[in-house]
Design brief:
This protein is of the alpha+beta class. It has one domain. Helices cover 21% and strands 38% of the residues. The protein is elongated, with a radius of gyration of 19 Å.
C-alpha cells in the first residue's frame, strides 16, 4: 500500500498538522497492469494519522489496468486523485442541480434529452 500525507509545516516553526492522507492499495492485476483502490481522508486537520476512521473518509476511487512497468508512482497518485475528484465533482453537480443523471443539460430546458422528469 502507498500512503501519501499532506502536511502543513508552518513557516513560523510551529507544530506541523496533517491535513489529508491518501491510501492506495494494490488489489490485483498482472505484473504489467495493476488494479488499485484509493481512499482519501481529510477535511479538518487531525494529528494522528494512524487513527483514521470512517468519519475522515472524503473520497474513494479506482485505477484499473495501470501500466506499472512504464509509469512512475506520481502518475498512479495523480490518476487515483483525478478519478476521486471527477466522481466527487459529478456527485456535487447532481446534488446541486437535483438531476438524477450525469448528462449535460440542454441550456434551454435545464434538463437532458433523456430526463425522467420530462423537462
Amino acid at each position: 500500500m502507498l500512503r501519501v500525507t499532506v502536511e502543513l509545516v508552518p513557516f513560523s516553526g510551529g507544530p506541523k498538522k496533517t491535513l489529508a492522507v491518501a491510501e492506495i492499495a494494490n488489489v490485483g492485476g498482472t505484473a504489467e497492469l495493476g488494479d488499485y483502490d484509493a481512499r482519501f481522508y481529510g477535511g479538518e486537520p487531525f494529528a494522528d494519522i494512524e487513527r483514521l476512521g470512517p468519519e475522515h473518509l472524503t473520497a474513494t476511487s479506482k485505477v484499473t489496468r495501470y501500466e506499472r512497468t512504464t509509469r512512475n508512482v506520481w502518475d498512479l497518485v495523480a490518476k487515483a486523485l483525478a478519478n476521486a475528484l471527477t466522481e466527487g465533482a459529478r456527485s456535487y453537480q447532481l446534488a446541486r442541480t437535483g438531476r438524477t443523471c450525469g448528462r449535460e443539460p440542454n441550456p434551454h430546458t435545464k434538463c437532458c434529452a433523456e430526463c425522467p422528469n420530462g423537462d
